[in-house]
């Protein structure tokens, strides 16, 4: 057998071995990801964390560290960890850096990483946490992706509302979200209705009960006119309305 034939035989064997290895890895990944999905459905927190970790580790080997699939698997794994686990923050910071370097067009993925990071860092650095979310909202707004901008602004508002030191910021962000919704989103948009609940809560907190009642009544009207089943937002609006009606009646 001459040298050329030997070289080709070795090359063929190498390709065959690599293909077999990839096939095995793919099968292993499918198993772990299927197990992860089952854990999501069952709500078993330990199984969720274990399977999310396995799916991420095998997925990283299969797709590569910088692949968007690997990043999404890492988000799943980070989500399965408790906030007290220091590995959660480390992993989120690692994949945020990768996403910003290799997937500059994936603003939604950046948001899915930034939001849990902002929540983890909020107590120690409120301004930076809120700024990171507001920056994403502004980018989405500049791209005229108004629903995404509304989501990001509202999440920033929810986070800001957790501290008395940033409650005024929360009010501004909620009003900003409401302005975008009214200008660009249909009345039946779930995101708009979700924001309406928060606007009503803000009005009630500022003793603007009539404005809060009007907003909540509008939510109920939208659901009654467009849906033939009860929705959590409608039920929440009903509950808050009853409470406000009772307060007004007791005056």
Structure commentary:
This protein has 251 residues and is mainly alpha-helical. Helices cover 82% and strands 0% of the residues. It is built from 11 helices and no strands. Helix 2 runs antiparallel to helix 3 and helix 5 runs antiparallel to helix 6. The mean pLDDT is 87.
Overall structural class, as computed from helix and strand content, comes to: mainly alpha
Overall average residue pLDDT: 87
Oligomer kind:
single chain
Run of helices and strands: HHHHHHHHHHH
Layout of helices and strands:
Layout: H1 3-42, H2 45-63, H3 68-80, H4 86-102, H5 107-121, H6 126-142, H7 146-160, H8 167-184, H9 190-205, H10 209-226, H11 232-249
Structural descriptors:
mainly alpha, single chain, 82% helix, 11 helices, 251 residues
In short:
The protein has 251 residues and is an all-alpha fold.
């Amino acid at each position: 057998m001459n040298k050329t034939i030997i070289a080709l035989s070795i090359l063929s064997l190498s390709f065959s071995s690599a293909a077999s290895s990839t096939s095995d890895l793919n099968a292993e990944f499918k198993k772990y990801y299927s197990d992860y999905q089952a854990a999501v459905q069952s709500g078993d927190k330990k199984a969720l964390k274990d399977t999310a970790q396995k799916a991420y580790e095998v997925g990283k080997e299969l797709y590569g560290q910088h692949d968007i699939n690997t990043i999404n698997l890492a988000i799943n794994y980070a989500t399965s960890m408790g906030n007290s686990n220091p590995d959660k923050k480390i992993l989120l910071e690692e994949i945020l850096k990768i996403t910003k370097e290799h997937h500059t067009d994936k603003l939604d993925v950046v948001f899915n990483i930034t939001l849990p990071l902002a929540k983890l860092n909020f107590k120690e650095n409120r301004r930076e946490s809120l700024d990171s979310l507001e920056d994403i909202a502004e980018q989405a707004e500049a791209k005229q992706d108004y629903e995404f901008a509304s989501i990001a602004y509202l999440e920033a508002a929810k986070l800001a509302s957790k501290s008395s030191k940033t409650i005024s910021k929360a009010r501004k962000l909620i009003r900003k979200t409401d302005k975008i919704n009214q200008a660009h989103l249909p009345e039946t948009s779930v995101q708009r209705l979700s924001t309406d609940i928060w606007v009503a809560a803000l009005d009630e907190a500022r003793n603007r009960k009539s404005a809060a009642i009007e907003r909540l009544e509008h939510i109920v009207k939208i659901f009654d006119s467009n849906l033939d089943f009860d929705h959590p937002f409608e039920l929440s609006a009903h509950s808050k309305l009853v409470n406000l009606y009772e307060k007004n009646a007791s005056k």
